[in-house]
């Protein structure tokens, strides 16, 4: 920004110079007050730049938050998928086993591990759950949102266990009928 701005006086046509950081000056020839709109526009542009920078920071934070949320979702899906497979195998082994069979022992161990994975995962994933606050432009976490996420994850665990049990029963029935 130049330190000296000169314009013609709209009243007499004389040259009016502004002092640094002034929006108005007085014409030395006719004493008319002259406004420097250029400075006002520069100030508005500077204000817009700071608002744009704040918006860019907000969008960057939101993008990082969404990327982290997608990564966490994949972790949850993989963890619950493995736990569901373990539970399904446990139920099949237990369903096919005799009373003193090794399959029964393996099934019980897999069942215990699957339950542990389900419910500790629900606790771990919900404890770090956060939501993006548009007003602040950043992620924040509160107990209410974490509890809601824990309820959702626990509900998903119970549904997966239910469907895996039904699938295991069907597999056991099919295996027994074909044998």
Structure description:
With 179 residues, this protein is mainly α. The protein has two domains: 6-35; 66-178. It is built from three helices and six strands. It has a two-stranded antiparallel sheet. A hairpin with a 6-residue loop joins strand 3 (24-26) and strand 4. Helix 1 packs parallel to helix 3 (143-178) and helix 2 packs antiparallel against helix 3 (143-178).
Helices and strands in order:
Layout lengths: L5 E3 L6 E3 L6 E3 L6 E3 L1 H60 L5 H26 L3 E3 L4 E3 L2 H36 L1
Antiparallel strand pairs: 1-2, 3-4, 5-6
Helix pairs in contact: 1-2, 1-3, 2-3
Sequence stretches where pLDDT stays below 50 over 5 or more residues: none
Radius of gyration, in angstroms, nearest whole number: 35 Å
Major sheet summary line: 2 strands, antiparallel
Number of helices: 3
Mean pLDDT: 81
**Helix percentage:** 55-70%
State which percent range the strand residues make up: 5-15%
Q: Which structural class best describes the helix and strand composition?
A: mainly alpha
Shape: rod-shaped
What is the subunit arrangement here? single chain
**Alpha carbon gap, first and last residue:** 89 Å
Order of neighbouring strands in the sheet with most strands? 1-2
DSSP strand count = 6
Order of helices and strands: EEEEHHEEH
Number of domains: 2
